[in-house]
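[User]
Protein folding is very new to me. Any chance you could explain this protein sequence and its structure tokens? I have pasted everything here:
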Amino acid sequence: MNDLSCERVTKKFGHFTAVSEVSLDVPSGAFFSILGPSGCGKTTLMRMIAGFETPSSGDIRIKGESVLGLPPNRRNVKMVFQHLALFPMMNVGENIAYGLRCRGDARSGIAEKVARVLDRVGLPGVEEKRIEQLSGGQKQRIAIARCMVLEPDVLLLDEPLGALDLKLREHMKIELKQLQHQFETTFLYITHDQSEALVMSDQVAVMNAGRFEQIGSPRELYDRPVSGFVAGFVGDANCIPGKIAEIRSGEARVELPQGGEVIGKLCDGSRTGDDVEVFLRPEALHLGAGGAGQSLEGTVDSLLFNGANSRILMRAGTGQLLEVAIPAEAPAIAEGDAATVNWRPDHALVFARRAG
């Protein structure tokens, strides 16, 4: 049985449709992320699941049972907000115990439950600490502990790492994944940060303009996107606009506006003469000459040093600025050097050009 299911869920605010016929199934114990840009409807969807908004149509089920008629406090889901909403006037133990007291749990058992959940989030013995004494990462774990002590069927997390600095955010991505395994609870995670979604998730739904464009594993979304939006939003990609000149055996020969052409795998129903975009991952481009129609020449515009993830920006003769991954064994290269990049046609993905 799925812990969470949404069936054709729609939410309208007047004439504006924030969420349009969204369906998903989240298996028990999964880490499921909804990834999309600001304003795409992902937080509205989460608020409907939590019970803070009512769908205009569709159904939401927890453990197979519809929860549309239940208020938030009667749904066995809990929510961690971006700003955590910890009570500063209470110590750590009181924060975690708050939900248990509201639920009417026996006072004699509350202290033991608080101690047990603190141990599971790796913060044993901090019951008496004040919230202001905690680091950012510790506050995150306390916010999760406050929810998990209530043993929810689903934990909802609305961009909980957004307020953290970069280094702590990178650390907390790993910690959150470990905590999810520790509790074996279903996590539904909302984010606009593709790195968070790819690193932590078993499944990711990419959302755009109120709809899901694609649901799949991080690897599927990265290697086999189904639309230009997914190809451009998930991971880094060079996007080259052009027009299809010829289609042969699933490959498109794309003419570029300033001359030249590229060859790539046609991934949708675009036809000869259509305006398209060719997506090339930086790691799919290799320095050096390639076969006919599979390479571009240019000049090194700048170097982007980032350790093992260093790249160059190459200005192609067609005017395109391409980001190219540099392998560790690559020869030294400097700004202004002539350069050629090549790729395998099946690594260049051709989609219809996006509007706007």
Notes: Residues 78 and 249 are 51 Å apart (CA to CA). The first strand starts at residue 2 and ends at 13. The domain at 2-228 is CATH 3.40.50.300 (Rossmann fold). Residues 166-183 form the longest helix (18 residues).
